[in-house]
Amino acid sequence: MTRTQRQIEAHRLGDAVLQVRDEAGHPCIGRPVWVEQETHEFLFGCAVPDWGTLSPSEGTRYRARWEEVFNRPEPEGDALRVEVGERAPLSVLRGELDRRAAAGLPLDVHVGGQTVGMTDRDERESARRVAELYTLCFAHPSVRGIFWHGFRDGEKDAADGGLLRRDLAPKPAHRVLRKLVGVVWHTRAAGASDAAGRFLFRGFFGTYRVVVMADGRAAKVASFSLRRQPDTAGPFLLEL
Predict the structure, then answer these.
(1) Which residues pair with 21 in a beta bridge?
(2) E strands present in the chain
(3) CA–CA dist 153, 113 (Å, integer)
(4) Which terminus of the chain, N or C, has less C-beta within 10 A?
(5) By three-state DSSP, how is residue 1 classified?
(6) Which H or E run includes 183?
(7) Rg (CA), the chain
(8) With contact defined as beta carbons under 8 Å apart, do 226 and 203 qualify?
(9) Mean pLDDT across 108-131
């Protein structure tokens, strides 16, 4: 396992405990459980356009492409803004993140097509650079979010360095980010509750949907959150 992978394991995933009980509070043993992540706690950000300037069909397509990768339109709360310069070497960025983290505040990293040279690099090479950049930032414990500037070619801050072409067709960099966020950094788990009525799994921080099969009745569906700094201790309780 690489250093970056170890950092992701250490700082972006946590252990979850689901406690399945019946109405009397007794543990439900051997119940099938399915869990899937719905959202990320980590901020994958990108500004959205004025929807009123888009036709209904174009707005629908744009929103669908945006939601395949992003979960925040803009930064929120207190954080230090880190602007990544054009073609910044990853080693330099890592050092800058370490230096800025010394202040003790979360970091919001701002990037765009110019950061990875999307306007003059081969598209596959640009996609590789985007993957490396996002992976580095996602692995850093002080980074709260990454914000992309210029989603679509022709938009402000994008020029021809957007993740989408003007006709909304995704570029390779968009497909790489979609795979990272929706597959590589996405948690699914399935199994059965143990002898204590518990279901344990390790997952990325965020919100989850859980489905538990109830004996002779419709499945129980619920949502819960797995947080990096949980507000309350103890397992998530699910009553059948």
Answers:
(1) 27, 239
(2) 13-21, 32-40, 43-46, 80-83, 107-112, 143-149, 188-192, 198-204, 206-212, 220-226, 236-239
(3) 10
(4) N
(5) coil
(6) none
(7) 20
(8) yes
(9) 89
